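Troubleshooting log. The previous run stalled partway through. Resubmitting the same four chains, unchanged.
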Amino acid sequence: MAVDESQEHRRTTIEDVATHAQVSRAAVSKVLRNAYGVSDEMRLRVNASIDELRYRPRISARGMRGRTFTIGVVINDITNNFIADVLLGLSSAVADTPFQTIVAIAERSGPAAPAIESLYDRQVDGILAISPLADAEWLDDMGRRVPMVQLGVHLSSTTFDTIVGDDSQGVEVMMRHLMGLGHRRIAHITHLDPAWISLPDRPHIIRQNEYRRIMREAGLDDEISIITARFEENTSYIESRRAFEAGLRPTAIFAGNDDAAFGAMRAAAEFDDLAGLSISGYDDSHMAANPRISLTTVNQHGHEMGRRAGALLLERIEGRRESRYIEMPTTLVVRSSTFPPTT
Amino acid sequence: MAVDESQEHRRTTIEDVATHAQVSRAAVSKVLRNAYGVSDEMRLRVNASIDELRYRPRISARGMRGRTFTIGVVINDITNNFIADVLLGLSSAVADTPFQTIVAIAERSGPAAPAIESLYDRQVDGILAISPLADAEWLDDMGRRVPMVQLGVHLSSTTFDTIVGDDSQGVEVMMRHLMGLGHRRIAHITHLDPAWISLPDRPHIIRQNEYRRIMREAGLDDEISIITARFEENTSYIESRRAFEAGLRPTAIFAGNDDAAFGAMRAAAEFDDLAGLSISGYDDSHMAANPRISLTTVNQHGHEMGRRAGALLLERIEGRRESRYIEMPTTLVVRSSTFPPTT
DNA sequence: CTGAAAGCGCTTACAG
DNA sequence: CTGAAAGCGCTTACAG
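Second attempt completed without errors. Output:
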């Protein structure tokens, strides 16, 4: 005997508890959900059995009759500090509810659809999609199928809620800061989306367009120069380096994201005549505050965005159907990586 | 009519597809799973209906009769680069399988149990627990319930597999490096676990013990000094600062983790007489390579660890029952943050 | 208060 | 090749 005891990972079920406590499955179910109509004596007995057998109900089975009490989040970059802040904010909004959060990680520059569908297949009660790489119509359709909040892309929908940072404002305060210091030759680092996506309102596109607009309005059309990289340290390093080698000599670089700014820093360090280059970013990630980095950047208040996204999602799960569109202000954080031009 | 069409988020079911394609549910199920015994004509018809209705089977319902094809990962720090590398490695191992990965994030210094149980409740087919903050017996019991691999803690079990970095070796090469540069007054920054946990073999404990052992064996008992912080930039900044204010003046600091090293850097920058302080870390995170940081550190090969963890987990899911214990070598990465003592 | 029964959406033997 | 039926582990009306 006992030969196969640990072999099969058989789960304890509600039936086991019912047998052990000598009651019906329905009774166990009621105790589980604190439903009305159970005697104290029965409740005690059932709870004892639950503890003794270390029973935990399967969410799947539960989900067949209703909710799974699960919120799914889709992200595409696990090291991104802004996303980490958003997740912390979401946690704070969800903490006192019975909902659990699970995260699906989409491929870095790959489509968000597989990750979103994977959550949908697992029957989450709601989805938070962070800057998803997906078509507007596809997202619309998804919003029809499951309560959804989208964070980052300036895209309003009738089927899901949207919460974005005020990217125009963020870029404006940053550009005003740089121009105020006396910079005119300001380059911008942007993120290249894969060719198959045509979603015009992703944050980096807005930032790039605003950069162009502000340069033009300042009469600096000729100084506009864009380094096309990715919002990631290494690609930004490579592309910045390539641009510097090709002769680009701005007095300031405004990177569309902190990681891209870090990459530009690394590249600039390799050119003696770029010692006086000002560099700024976007996101106010943790390392931006490091004294050796001390990056001027734009804080998007990710924690608060995540918290509000969580609140919106809970409302939707509870039945709200009208769409919300929220734009949150940003804050300029001035540090020592930006200073007046030295040439 | 049509008043409630978008109101209820009703899902398309296998029944809907069967009706639409004029076949039985069993037939749809077979097409779904590419099972034998379906005529080409029927397959075509069913697939057409599936596409038209955009039908996706519920994993929950599927899971009731078998697997959910889901791997659950538990992490406690979303911004940690080492963990990000592990996740990428896991993805590469799981990429060509039907398994999907979902992540549950445990509270930063809180117990891992709720996150692990949440995955278990959702009936994942296997769990990868990264440096879980949990009792050994509790983990043992969990391993009996579900295929599990634990990464990080030097803890061998009969119910789950373990994969760890060779922390002793990592500390040894780092200490040898520092001592080789001529350092004798070497301080160590460690991580403080919450009081309720008593798992002696977490990585930072091993690192601290090795540091002590090597110092003693070098006859440097009197120079041993430990800064107790957390493996996180800000706490490390605060505690390092406090130690410096109290008069601690090492020539080198070996932090048990890169983020802790970054915090120490920030603190040291505030003391003029610490300009010649060497600082090193552990993990080889992305920012360690930044030219302004250029941190000497230990690479744990997180990607490879994650890949092997994924392979172990798949084996377990396929039925292996004997436990594996794998220890992976580390590599010293020397950069410019360490140099001979200046005093 | 308590429990028998139906049902959620799938898959799996099993007949035909 | 095709489908009717049972069953997975829960919850939910509904009787008693």
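Takeaways: Chain A touches chain B through 55 residues (CB under 8 Å). Chain A has three domains: 14-57, 70-165+302-326, 167-300.
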